Amino acid sequence: MMDAVFQTLNYYLSEHPSIVNFRWSHSQSWGSTWSFLFSSIVFYLGFCAFVHLFLAILLRRGRVVPLGPIPAVHSLSMALISVTIFAGILLSTAAEIQETRWFWRRSKTPFQWLLCFPLGTRPSGRVFFWSYMYYLSRFLHMFRTFFTILQLRKLAFFQLFNNSISIFMSFLWLEFSQSFQVLAILLATLAYSVVYGYRFWTAIGLPSACFPFVVNCHMVLLGCNLACHVGVLLLHFMKGGCNGIGAWLFNSVLNGAILLLFLNFYVKMHLENNKKNKKKRHHPVITEEEMEKFKRED
Description:
Oligomer: single chain
Number of domains: 1
Distance between the termini: 41 Å
Strand content: under 5%
Structural class: mainly alpha
């Protein structure tokens, strides 16, 4: 029975004709044009600024907009989507390696292929189908920004920048058949599965971790991405070139900017926590409002 279940999942996640025959095309793939990419990012930034300004005018400072179960439903949906993409690209990667290894086996191992696509790779087939699904899921991820604006009344620059760059980079992966994207999606969807599962866990009232769980997960993800980028650079010069290296270089610059911003936020968070801990030694009582704010920030 388990074998039959696995075969069914394998068919729908890696062998379905829509997946096997996928091709990234400006005329056939929704959201695949440069004009759509830039207009969607501009609309996202503009609409977030409008909502924040509108609430600042309409509501007095400190008041929040109750959202009920919407954040919990969103977190559960994103966790399930992330798990599906992770499983899909994992099975698709195994199938692609098995079917195309003859083409590059003399120059690369399977792990090297994950980091460095052979020159001439086209954005078609299984792994690019799931790369496209990941690209589309970034638009759903954007809703977290509106929850932050409505619940915390904050318009965080890092969140806006990170979400915009995430969409831009996932578009580049498809447009230029960029190397490293398979490992990047595997790492990202694994991290998002855990993060959104945790957010759903806390949103329904279950106990939260005693440390900033989400922030630390993002820190681990950025560290893994940094190590993989070094691997791509080494393989590019040692193995005769990697496909989409120009897009990868631009991607690396954007990832570096995100890493610096996140490190700045991470250091400030720890400094603020140290100050709070010192105050708690003198005033150990924590109000319900402070506890709720800490949970939302995580």
